[in-house]
Structures are given as structure tokens and as C-alpha cells.
Specification:
The protein has helices spanning 30-35, 38-42, 58-63, 76-84, 105-114, 131-147, 160-166, 176-185, 202-207, 209-224, 229-236; strands spanning 17-23, 46-51, 68-71, 91-94, 99-100, 119-127, 157-159, 191-200. The chain has 243 residues and is of the alpha/beta class. The protein has one domain: Alpha-Beta Complex (Spore Coat Polysaccharide Biosynthesis Protein SpsA, Chain A). It is globular.
């Protein structure tokens, strides 16, 4: 997908932060998530929400709290690419709708990039009363530090010029975060920011903690062995859009 080598050692073009949030049928919880980002908007961040075809009031809620609301083909990769395409050069932060940023996240990201990072992510904590999920979050952070691979629930960020030079996220049904991380890692290790984003534990709680962990390990292993992301998405419980 890479069209030309990204300018890894050039001065950062622009200093703005653009937060891209892909959504699908998130009306029940979206308003407080977006309200939590208003302080970042007041400090200059741009907030772009990209809907994948919600059947509820997601878009109406987003319009009240975002700088721009778009509709794009369903799939996080396609939605995040559409949002990033509306952002000016600077730094792009990709935030899942069920994930909350830590205090001062905007400045921490910009500080990391101005210190030389091309991309990075936050540590993650899973919101749940289940003690096992605290351990899962710790293991996710440790694995990410050791492997140099980030996942979407860690709020990945990347210099806009690097993201565009690489062609953005692959338009695949699952593992778009792993795929982009792999290409970014070939350029530089990620900045691993210790402040924790807080992500929903709803999937683990609904399907069982260790059952979900084992499923995710199997899917990642299958992906690295060349399995079709559409088939992996079905096994994960996603319904890929029709080709």
C-alpha cells in the first residue's frame, strides 16, 4: 500500500491534533464519550466522527459534539481513513467510541511527536469489576511494549504525513490496527505512553474473559499465517460489509 517512503526525518508539518472516531450504532453511550473530548476541542483539537451506517441516533448525537460528521462504508479501517482524509497535516489520533482518553492526552501525544515519535499508543485499562480484566489489560500493555504492535483500543496516534505516505489503514474487515502497526513498526518503534486509556470491557464480560482472550490469540495467529480477514471477522462476531 505504501506509495513512497514517508518523510521520517523531516520537520513535522503542522502541530494540530485531529481525533478520528469510527462509530456504528453507538447512540446509547456516545454523548458522554464525545462530551469528554470537548476540552481537547477547546484547546485546538479537531474532532471528526465517521459513521458506518448506524440505524439509531448516532449521527444526530455526533453532530452536536463534533467538528465534522461523515458517513463512510462500514468497517473501522475504511471509516478511519475517511476521517483522516478530512484532517489537515499534523497528528492523527484514532479513538474507538468505547474508549476514554486520560487527562491531558492531547498534549502528551503532541509532546511525544515533537520529541521525535512517528507514531504511538497509550497503555490501556479495561473498565470492569472483574479482576481478571485488570490482568488482561496489563498483559496487553506488556505484549505491545515487547512486540512494538499496537491495537485500536490503545488509542493509536501517528504523524499525518507518515499516515498518508503509507496509504492509511488497510480496508480489511478485522486486524486493520495490527496491519498498520506492522508497517509503522518497520519505520520506527512506537511511543508507548504510560497514561491509561479506559476501554469498555463489554465484549469480555458478554462472552467470557478467558474465552475472549483465547479467541483473540487464535485470530491474531491465523491472521499472521495468512487467513482471510473477512473470515476472521465472522469468527470474532463482526459482519463484514458486502464487497
Amino acid at each position: 500500500m505504501q506509495s513512497q517512503p514517508p518523510p521520517t526525518n523531516q520537520r513535522l508539518p503542522g502541530t494540530g491534533l485531529c481525533i478520528v472516531v469510527p462509530v456504528l450504532d453507538e447512540a446509547a453511550t456516545l454523548a458522554p464519550r464525545l462530551l469528554a473530548l470537548q476540552a481537547l476541542r477547546q484547546r485546538g483539537a479537531r474532532l471528526v466522527v465517521v459513521d458506518g451506517g448506524s440505524a439509531d441516533a448516532t449521527q444526530a448525537i455526533a453532530r452536536a459534539h463534533a467538528d465534522r460528521v461523515l458517513q463512510a462504508p462500514r468497517g473501522r479501517g475504511a471509516q478511519m481513513n475517511a476521517g483522516a482524509a478530512t484532517c489537515t497535516p499534523g497528528v492523527y489520533l484514532f479513538l474507538h467510541a468505547d474508549t476514554a482518553l486520560p487527562e491531558g492526552a492531547d498534549q502528551r501525544v503532541l509532546d511525544a511527536v515533537h520529541a521525535g515519535a512517528l507514531w504511538g499508543r497509550f497503555d490501556v485499562r479495561i473498565a470492569s469489576a472483574w479482576p481478571a480484566l485488570r490482568m488482561v489489560g496489563t498483559l496487553i500493555n506488556l505484549r505491545s511494549r515487547l512486540s512494538g504492535i499496537a491495537t485500536g483500543d490503545q488509542a493509536m496516534f501517528v504523524r499525518g504525513d507518515v499516515f498518508r505516505a503509507l496509504g492509511g489503514f488497510a480496508d480489511i474487515a478485522l486486524m486493520e490496527d495490527i496491519e498498520l502497526s506492522t508497517r509503522l513498526k518497520a519505520l520506527a518503534r512506537p511511543a508507548c505512553l504510560k497514561p491509561q486509556v479506559l476501554t469498555s470491557g463489554r465484549r469480555w464480560e458478554r462472552h467470557g474473559v478467558w474465552r475472549t482472550v483465547l479467541l483473540m490469540w487464535r485470530l491474531r495467529a491465523a491472521y499472521f499465517l495468512g487467513a482471510d480477514p473477512n473470515q476472521l471477522a465472522l469468527r470474532y462476531g463482526y459482519r463484514p460489509r458486502a464487497s
